[in-house]
Amino acid sequence: MYAIIETGGKQVHVAVGDKVFVEKLETEEGKTHTFDKVLLIGSEKAKAKVGTPYLKGATVTANVVKHGKGKKIKVFTYKAKTNQKRMLGHRQPYTLVEISTING
């Protein structure tokens, strides 16, 4: 069984047992988080259920494994002929979750 959920403005394809990096959640490590914005639930044997835009009553529960920051990216801005340049760095925070159940 698999599902497509919406979190952090992105759509994520998940299945039971998957470990997925998502945008930072406010849930503490070791606790469970419930995703209620489920767009689709399907399996190999049955037809997929598609929501408009979300499925009513469908949830995906996940265990929060850890919080962290991604690799640093460098942002360089430059304007020609004016000697204007600036270098910035950014590390995006993330949450690693392990999908435990899909209820639909």
* Rounded Rg: 19 Å
Strand order of the largest sheet: 2-1-5-6
Q: What sequence of helices (H) and strands (E) makes up the elements?
A: EEEEEEEEEE
Domain count: 1
Shape, per Cα inertia axes: elongated
Mean pLDDT: 95
Q: What profile does the largest beta sheet have?
A: 4 strands, antiparallel
Total strand count, please? 10
**Helix content class:** under 10%
Question: How much of the residues is beta strand, in percent?
Answer: over 45%
The residue ranges in which pLDDT falls below 50 over 5 or more consecutive positions are none
Q: What structural category arises from helix and sheet content?
A: mainly beta
- The N- and C-terminal alpha carbons lie at a distance of 10 Å
* Total helical elements: 0
List the defining traits of the structure above.
four-stranded antiparallel beta sheet, 104 residues, single chain, mainly beta, elongated
Describe the protein.
Helices cover 0% and strands 62% of the residues. By secondary structure, the chain is an all-beta fold. It has one domain (2-67, 94-103). The strands form 3 sheets. Strands 2-1-5-6 form a 4-stranded antiparallel β-sheet, with no helix packed on it. Strands 3-10-7-4 form a 4-stranded antiparallel β-sheet, with no helix packed on it. The chain has a two-stranded antiparallel sheet with strand order 8-9. A hairpin with a 2-residue loop joins strand 1 (2-7) and strand 2. It is elongated and about 60 Å long. The protein starts with a strand and ends with a strand.
